[in-house]
Amino acid sequence: MQNTTKTICSITASLFVLTTLAACNKAPEKKERPPAPVTVIEIKPTDVPFSKEMIGETAGYRDVEVRSRVNGILLKRTYVEGQNVQAGQVLFEIDPEPYKAILDQAKGVLSQAASNLDKARADKDRITPLFKENAVSRKDFDDANAAYNAAVASHDAAQASVRQAALNLEYTKVTAPISGMTSKLAQSEGSLISANGESGKLTTITQYNPLYVNFSYSEQDRQELESAQRSGSVALNASGNFPAKLKLADGSVYPVTGQVNFSDNRVDTTTGTIRARAIFKNEKGELLPGQFVRITLDLGTLKNAISIPARAVVQSQADFLVMTVDKDNKVVPKPVTIRPSTDGQVIISKGLSAGDKVITEGQMKAPPGSTVKPMIASAPAASK
Fold it and tell me: Taking every annotated instance into account, which residue ranges of this chain make up the domain Multidrug resistance protein MdtA-like beta-barrel (predicted)?
């Protein structure tokens, strides 16, 4: 009996050990991950501003070369390089002494011509009544009239010479033809200046206010815009009145809104683009000619457009994708065609439809095919 009891206890102990080992070797149960929370917006087509961004280059409203009209030695410069000057301000002085001498000589010739004219007039006045009384011959009368006419012509020529000499003397003081900013001096003081050729160029004046921004758009852009206008999907601003905004190289936005004031009527055969220009006020001189800027044109309104935040678009190599949520809350990627817009928004021209739910936040936690917990966010209102 005692042996039987020991045997039963031994078997019981062995079963306990086996049960414990089996429990230790049992794999833990796999827990399912809860659906990741994501923010989505529901697509609702609406009218949005239609804009186009391009690269432009600033240019002066007027660039005028200041040139000498007479030859001579450049005596002095009377302005500070790179500073603003006013129209009519004296900028340079060329040695006036040779032109003073020429003017004095011309005045002397004029005095002599005036004396000859007085004598010829007196001779004509004396001989005219004598000719009427047949006291002098026809030849003497004709000679007196011819001498008078020649004296008049000589006097007129002498007067013209005086005016020319006075004008040349005035040209020895080179003045600013327009108001604006001067560039670097082209000729130093003491140089021999010639009215012809490059030595006659003294400086350049640029009018900065207003300022032009030159840019180009493609022939394809023009055709697509005209097609969209005909189909009614785009409503352009009345009379082609296109406001323009500038973004500078540092990313800042120029505070003044400009206006497109020129578009060429032909396509450049070398580039396939059409030249255009906008004009901006530049009263503080913040813009300088030759700057590269980004110019955004406000063309009008895009009808029934699909606009989503730019952060919702994922780029995969050369394609663009957006992550959508289907009726079972599963993530479905959709390829889209985008058109840049403003204020952090992009326009979807292909790939999405009204009612689609697009993930705008939490894409990293929502791989394709996974189940998510969508939270609806209201779409941003389109800016007017």
Answer: 210-300
Classified as helix, coil or strand, 127 is helix
Please compute Rg for the chain using Cα positions. Answer: 45
Domains and CATH numbers, the chain: 96-171 (1.10.287.470)
For 162-186, b where at least 16 C-beta lie within 10 A, e where not — what string?
Answer: beebeebbebbebbbebbbbbbebb
Pairwise CA distance, residues 202 & 77, whole Å: 10
Contacts 24+ apart (CB under 8 A), 151-154: 151/113, 151/116, 151/117, 151/119, 151/120, 151/121, 152/117, 152/120, 154/113, 154/116, 154/117
- Beta pairing partners, 294: 55, 247
Q: Tell me the C-alpha distance between 250 and 142, whole Å.
A: 85
Question: Nearest CA to 274 among 260, 288, 263?
Answer: 263
Q: Tell me if the pTM is above 0.90.
A: no
Pair of tokens at residue 97: 């002494």
Q: Find out whether 322 and 358 touch, Cβ atoms under 8 Å.
A: yes
Q: What is the mean pLDDT of each run of 10 residues along the chain (384 residues)?
A: 46 46 51 82 89 92 93 93 91 96 96 96 93 90 94 96 96 94 88 88 92 93 87 81 91 93 91 94 90 93 89 85 92 88 80 92 88 77 41
Calculate the alpha carbon distances from 246 to 103, 155, 251, 371, 382 in Å. Answer: 55, 62, 10, 44, 21
pLDDT at 145: 93
